[in-house]
Predict the structure.
Amino acid sequence: MKKILTFLCALCLLSFLVRPAAVCAADTEQTAAAPDLGITAASYVLMEASTGQIILSQEADTRLSPASITKIMTLILIFDALDSGQIQLTDEVTTSAYAKSMGGSQVFLEEGETQTVETLIKCIVVASGNDASVAMAEYISGSETEFVNQMNSRAEQLGMANTHFEDCCGLTESDNHYTSAKDVAIMSRELLTQYPQIKQYSSIWMENITHNTAQGTKEFGLANTNKLLKQYQWTTGLKTGSTSKAKYCVSATAEKDGVELIAVIMACPNYKLRFAEAETLFNYGYSNCKLYKDENPEPLPRLAVTNGKTDDMALRYESVFSYLSTTGEDLSSVTKELSYREDLSAPIMEGEVVGTLIYKLGDTTLGSVNILAAETVEKADYWDYLKKLFFQCLL
């Protein structure tokens, strides 16, 4: 019995010592302890956009009031509606009495005033217009309440586990209106990667719009609330926010040498300090990160299929592979391995996974991309086999 107990203890110790190390891949968080960068904000996240990898974070899942950073989700829904064809940039939107009544940051829309969707996007992104946000919410969903329901549904789809919206602009200071730095980074990434045209608007420093109302025509100047546009040369956006409850927040985006970073600062005690601390995160990211992105992988051959109406099929990659290094590896030594399923028998549906392209650095697997069927191959019937036999006899 003593020998058995000794053997079991040794076995447990051995299993502890040889546990496999975690492999860094897309949509994962950096587990190393964050360096002391002197950041005073209650919560922050630094994320690489193409992979979704969190490089640095502090209190990333803590629920906080987001103020106007809320409008990032509002913008996602606006661009969703544009992408689906529900609305067009040139559509005329009429301001309701309710939209006009919004306080806080606004562009002073009058009841009955019409502006194009594109103009209202600028008012939301550049000037953080609460009135413009509500006008667009009502135009897309009929009411702000229904639009907010859709915001919460979209947040759930994105896996934003610590988010709940009560309005479309962040003006409320309700305890039931909250998000986290990680969730802000997630929705910022969604807006940035799915709708990169947002940068055409978020990079505007100043621009005038025209109010045409019953009182006449007048110009109104939009000035971007994101001062990083003048302070940090690689800034591309994205959104600021502040209330007495939320303090000072920013979700900042930047692009340098093909690498896009998202720096989220929440509950910063000082108006200017939030921008300085976002810049600190950017400087850390660009000093310590290298991105491998395989934008031109090898062309895929046609792949043989058994029992199908056709004998082979076209293939496509599911996505572009990206890998973010924070430890200085030589990414020029990355190798690739193709592998295909062995049971490729019809029927096979378009979009079905039929293989994998694996990326390695030495003996370490960095990640992979699925290879998909680019067309549907239906199962052959009696007449298909007869036709194949007939044509073979002619050869």
